[in-house]
Specification:
six-stranded mixed β-sheet; alpha/beta; 11 strands; binds zinc ion
Length: 278
């Protein structure tokens, strides 16, 4: 039976923690390295509903993309949501492990899975290559197999991503032809200038704010913008990460059972225009 230490070792050989940004907090959040691990649940966010799903399924480990604690804490008392989560996990023998910006910049990483989900089929290159290794980096740039209008591409992207209350927001001429596409999973504000310089036809990311987006589309000659739910842009990576971990384990004779949580943990649950999500 593999131990948590075995699984962490396999995962960190795929998503090297040294690739993470200096401000990030990746790795093991709770769990005994000697504990046995058979079932691993993958999710974007370490929230109460995900912990409940792990307990119900009998998971020994949850792998999340987002850290539970990004900054230091002096208490894990069950007086806050995060403290309660830690209590739920320890009481039920569930470990928690995070791969965040080290998974963003991996090859393949979070944005490769996003690119495939929205229909990019050819080679992908980083939008912002990592200084240490240009094969890795933030975001991805690739081409569509055949040109689409912005309207058609947005529809294809919406069908390829998991459904969220807010759907996709699109800025630009809807009849514009789209061939080259840049994508970046999670908040993409900081990559707007890089996407413009890359000469792509559209940049698909999340968490775009009014002023940066408005000023961006006011300038002529730049790409159109598509703003998706943060959770939806990172969720496609979970399947890729689960496959990579399971096959790395299998090659060492370790059998683990993986499952990707389909629980929508995007913060926004509905809009005024659409029916409340069931
Ligand atoms: Zn994120």
């Amino acid at each position: 039976m593999p131990t948590l230490a075995d699984i962490v070792g396999e995962f960190e050989s795929i998503y090297d923690p040294s690739w993470a940004e200096s401000w990030d907090a990746v790795g093991l959040v709770c769990g005994d390295p000697g504990a046995e691990v058979r079932r691993i649940l993958f999710a974007v966010d370490p929230t109460a509903v995900v912990a409940a799903e792990a307990v119900e399924w009998g998971a020994d480990l949850i792998v999340t993309h987002h850290p539970l604690y990004l900054r230091g804490t002096t208490s894990v008392a069950a007086t806050t949501a995060k403290g309660r989560l830690i209590h739920t996990l320890i009481r039920n023998d569930v470990a928690l492990f995070t791969a965040h910006t080290n998974a963003d910049v991996a090859d393949p990483g979070v944005s490769d899975a996003l690119a495939r989900a929205v229909g990019l089929t050819g080679p992908l290159v980083p939008l912002l290559p990592a200084a240490a290794d240009p094969r890795r980096g933030l975001g991805r740039v690739g081409s569509l197999p055949a040109p689409l209008s912005l309207r058609e591409f947005a529809g294809q992207a919406a069908r390829g991503l998991p459904r969220t209350a807010g759907g996709l927001r699109v800025a630009g001429d809807l009849d514009r032809e789209i061939r080259r596409v840049a994508v970046s999973g999670g908040s993409g504000d900081s990559l707007l200038g890089t996407a413009r310089a890359a000469g792509v036809d559209v940049f698909l990311t999340a968490d775009l704010r009014h002023h940066p987006a408005s000023e961006f589309v006011e300038e002529t000659g730049g790409p159109a913008l598509i703003d998706a739910a943060h959770w939806a842009t990172e969720w496609p990576w979970l399947t890729d990460a689960a496959h990579r971990l399971a096959s790395a384990c299998a090659s060492r004779g370790i059998n683990v059972e993986t499952r990707v949580s389909e629980t929508v943990t995007d913060a926004w649950k509905t809009t005024a225009e659409c029916e409340e999500l069931k």
